[in-house]
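quick one if you have a minute, typing this from the bus. theres a chain ive been looking at and ive put its sequence and its fold in C-alpha cell form underneath. please have a look and point out which stretches look like helix strand or loop to you. anything you notice is useful, everything is just below.

***
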Amino acid sequence: MEKKKFAVVLCSTSNQIFAVGNVLIGLKQHFSLPEKDYDVILYISGNINKNDENALKQIYENVIINHYKSPIEKRMKNSNCALMWSLMTFARYEAFELLDNYKKVLYLDTDVLIQKDIIDLLNINKDISVSYESAKLRGNIENKLLTENFHETKYNLDKKVFNAGVFLINDSIKNAGEIKSWCYNMSAKWIMTDQPVLNLAVQEFHLEANDFSDKYNKFFNNENIDITEACILHTAWDKKFWNGINNTEWNENSKKWAELGGTVYDPKYVEKKIKEIDKVAWWIPIKKLRDIYRVRQAEKFGFRWHLY
C-alpha cells in the first residue's frame, strides 16, 4: 500500500476537545496541502461528548479518532509528571508507529495555534525536526517533577533540550516501532515525562535532527512578542490562549467552534471549582496526596489542574 504524504496527530483528554477543535480550525484554514493527501489523527482518553465529536467531524469529515489507554498507566498514574500533564502526554509516542502508513507525521500539542501555511514541512527530510530551547537536557533530567528515577551515564545531558510540543518525523526512520516501545518502557523505568525521553531517544537511536526553530514552534507567553514570522504559536506553562493569553485569531477560531456546537471552555466555572477543591485539599497533610486529590477532582469536574 502506498503511503500518504502526511499525518497530523494530536492527543487530548476529553475535557480539552475545545482546544483540539481550535487547532484543527486553524489547520483547515491555512494548510494548502489537498485534504486527500493527509489525515488528521486524534488520540483521546475518556468518552467524547457527542456534540464535540460532531463538531470535529464538521471540520474534518474523515478525522480518525482513537480512544487511548496508556500502556504504562499502572506504573505512572500518580507520578509527578503524570499529575502535572496527565497520562495523555505519553500518547505522542504513537506518532512513531504511524510512519508505517505516512511519509511524514507532525505531532502538535493542543495549546498551539496554526496561523500560517505549514506546507514547507513537506520539504524537510531529516529523521526528526524540532525546536530547541535555551536550556540543557540536564535541567529536565534533574527536575524531580519531570523525572524521578534516572541514573544513566551514557547520554550527553549537556546538549540543548528540544521542546516536545511540536515535532515532525520522517519515514527515513526505519525502526519507528522500536522507538515507540523504547519511549514507553523508559518512561516507566525512569518515571520520566515525554520531553526528556524523546530527547534521549534521539541519542539512543542516532536520529538525525533538524532545528526548525521558532518558525514552527514559537513560544508565545505575552502579547509583546513578535509573532509575524511564525507558522505555529505555542503557549507555555499555565498561560494558554484560553486562560491568560489574548489572541484575535484564536478567539475567532473559538467562536467558530462554538457555532459548530462544540463545548466551550468556561473560565468562571473552572475558577469556582478550583476554590472548592482547594478548600478541601488544604486539610490533607501530605503534599503528594493533596496534589493527587486536586488533579483527580479537576478531572471529575472536566478540567485540568496545573500543579506548577
